[in-house]
Amino acid sequence: MAAQKGPTVRLSRRDVEAGRIPLQARLKAWWDGYDIRLPRTGKAGKTKARHEITAPEQKLPWDDPRISLVQAVWGDGFDRPGSEEFVLELINPVGLDPSMSVAILDAGLGGAARSICRAFDVWVTGFEGDAKLAEVGNKLSNMAGLAKKAPIHQTDPSEPDLKKRGYDCVFGHESFFLVPEKALMLETIEKGMKPGGQLLFTDYVLADSRATSPALQEMKENEPKPLKLWSVFDYHQAMSDLELDIRISEDITERIAAMITRAWGEFMNKPDARKNLGASPELLLEEAELWTRRLRALQEGALKVYRFHALKKSSGTLLSNW
Q1: Does 3.40.190.290 match the CATH number of domain 74-309?
Q2: Record's InterPro entries (predicted)?
Q3: N- or C-end of the chain: fewer Cβ atoms within 10 A?
């Protein structure tokens, strides 16, 4: 009897030559219970180390399948690339101390807010547009004993409910690209910063105002919300119009792309992850496809991730260089 052939998965020549298997194909194979391998091309490939992840052992009363899924992929309290270590590295240039207050926009499940609060003993207020994420994020802060020092509130992303001149630092973590009224958002942020306050954020941006690619177009057409992407120049112009002094403008695309690839790879290397999550194959594929589209847009170069750091005037003059 002839050996039974497994399912056929077609890969693009570019993926084969680059020695990579797209996330979507790998996830579908993992879900269906079969292995997927690249054909031999005569080129030596790199072997990736296997990693373990910890999925929730039981579903918490306030949880839902998607929130369980994103935390299993990105880590406890996170719904996007990054980690506690990464967040603390990003915010380190601010020079936080216990006398300072921080506002975090699009705080998600509050992982960044709680990490910053614990590390620097500062008062942190998280603002999140999604009602469910805000509710769960606030409950997680309560469970961590940080109900007062790191609460998560629901707010309009375009006009976050910031206290005027209330914050020494405003922080955002790859989420402003989903806000349609960015100019209005930045004006609101500037009003919420104390004199001498600092704005630090990372975001998806266009490589230039005319940047385009097939992957970027596919991403735009399939995002949960309509996208109005800005270029680095657009952000520089808007911050300059608000008289913010831009100190850092850094391309961190490769690092974020590596985080996406690594997080999903580690998730799929955990055999029992899907059983513990209770997520449907449709939900799992939907989430994986979202990040696959974003990753492809980054790999094709039309989309970038940048880190920005800007200062507000202090008593009518800008702070001196460090």
Answers
A1: no
A2: Erg6_SMT_methyltransf, SAM-dependent_MTases_sf
A3: N
